[in-house]
Amino acid sequence: MSTRPKGPRPSIVVVGAGPRGTGFLERLAASLPELYGDDPLDVHLVDPHPPGPGRIWRTEQSPLLWMNSQAEDVTMFTDETVSLDGPVRPGPTLADWADIEGRTFPTRPQQGAYLRWVYERALAALPASVTVHEHRTTALRVGGPRDGRQRVWLEAGAEPLLADLVVLTVGHLGAEPAPEQRALADFAARHRLVHLPPDFTADTDLSALPAGEPVLVRGFGLAFVDLMVLLTEGRGGRYEGEGDDLVYVPSGREPVLHVGSRRGVPYHSKIGYALDGERPPLPRFFGTEQTDALLDRDGPLDFRRDVWPFIDKELGWAHYHRLFSTHPERTALAWSDFEQAYAAAPPRGAEIAALVAAAVPDPADRLDLDGLDHPLDGVRFGSAEALQDGLRAYVTDDLSRRHDPAHSPDAAVFAGLLSVYGQLLRLGERVDTGGWWHGFFSYLASGPPGPRLRQLLALSRAGVVRFLGPQVTVETDEERGVFRAVSAAAPGEWTEARALVEARLPDPTLELTDSPLLRALYEDGARATASGLLVVDPTDARILERDGRPHPRRFALGPHTTARAGGAFTRPRTGGIAFGQNDVAARAALSFLRDRADRSCRLPASLSA
Question: Region labeled Disordered — which residues (predicted)?
Answer without folding.
Answer: 549-569
